[in-house]
Amino acid sequence: MIAETVCSAVSAAGLGIAVVTAYRKRLLAAARIAAYALVPLGLVMTGVVDWLADTAFSPTAWAGFGVLGLSWVLFATTRTVERRRGGTRKERKAARAAAAPEAAAPGASVPSLGRGGRPQARPAPASRGEDDFSDIEAILKKHGI
Question: Which helix (H) or strand (E) holds 24?
């Protein structure tokens, strides 16, 4: 009974502030204040306030909150231990991928799925001139210049 009265008073006060704000030509702010002011009234009308009041004085509800807290502590502890043991998620995936055998064709002596991509480029022959510019020439030849 008291909770409903307090929520109604808060809503009435909020709507009064919204009217004053609208009078000052700040309509967007007034609409936002009115929206916030109507929340407690809506909670009273839907029965959420009664449910919360019943929950606050229920030992079963508090025991349920304790169980939820214990569950959260266990979850956080297991996550911490998992992170300390296995490293990051990427490291664990890399370890699993390394442990898995590579795919090979039946009867093949070499795995068929090796490193793919372009064939390796041949190194550029060293110039016979000065050694100072040989590295630069190799880089330019590599890029086709």
Answer: none
The residue among 7 and 116 whose pLDDT is bigger is: 7
28-37: Cβ within 8 A, 24+ apart: 37/10, 37/11, 37/13
Q: Contact, 49 vs 3, CB < 8 A?
A: yes
Residue 123 in this model has a pLDDT that exceeds 70: no
Inter-residue contact 7 to 37 (CB < 8 Å): no
Spatial CB neighbours of 48, under 8 Å, sequence gap ≥ 6: none
pLDDT in tens, 20-56: 999 998 889 899 999 999 999 998 888 888 888 888 7
Tell me which residue of 75, 3, 80, 15 sits closest to 44, measured CA to CA.
3
